[in-house]
Amino acid sequence: MSLVKQKLLIHAPSLAIGAIIASVVITGVIFGFNNTTNELEILPTPVIGPIEPKEITMNTFVSNGSPVLGDPNAPITLVEFGDYQCHYCNVFFDTIEEDIMRNYVDTGKVKIIFKDYNIIGPDSINASHGAHCAGEQELFWEYHDMLYSNWTGENNGWASPNNLTMFANEINVNMEQWTECMDEKPYAKTIIESNNDAQALELTGTPAFFVITEEGKVTKLFGAQPFEIFKKVFDDQLEK
Residue 73 belongs to what domain range? Predict the structure, then answer.
């Protein structure tokens, strides 16, 4: 995948923000959160009954996240909760996301929102700030890609302040504006609220994905699943 992804329309998502998910259908697919496993286990699909509005609403899934990647009118929204230092998030970026982009995002079927779930260390939080500050200049996804393209591990310094600045330079942001943003941290609340959303959804690791239809059906996928798993979920929803 190229370091800089073609960014289509990245304005506010066209979902009905504030609409409440009356019931959430969860497809539990377990495959390597922060642990490896030798086989793919697909669990039965339990149905959770009505959820109190104060706990889970559409805002829980789509607010406090990135600009939309893809056509805002795409019928399916893929929400990823990720940590920029997470190994399996990097696996998803390197081996799966390009196929999703080519087959579903570029064709107008799926749009993507990235949300922060910083579970590894302080560099993860700094990286999140870097992406949001780049987003002020409509370069969120370019910075997101730059981070994952330079991933070398967890808490080993690759996302240090110096490197984050270098990454910003490489995607040609206005460095004065980006540096001021990094100093003032105006997105601290957004990042905290995104983490709160992840906890409200009882996420235990990254990456975690939610596939949301226009009707408000939500399917949850755990970990860096093979592309075929995403394809099956997307196709099943598109056929309905």
Answer: 24-238
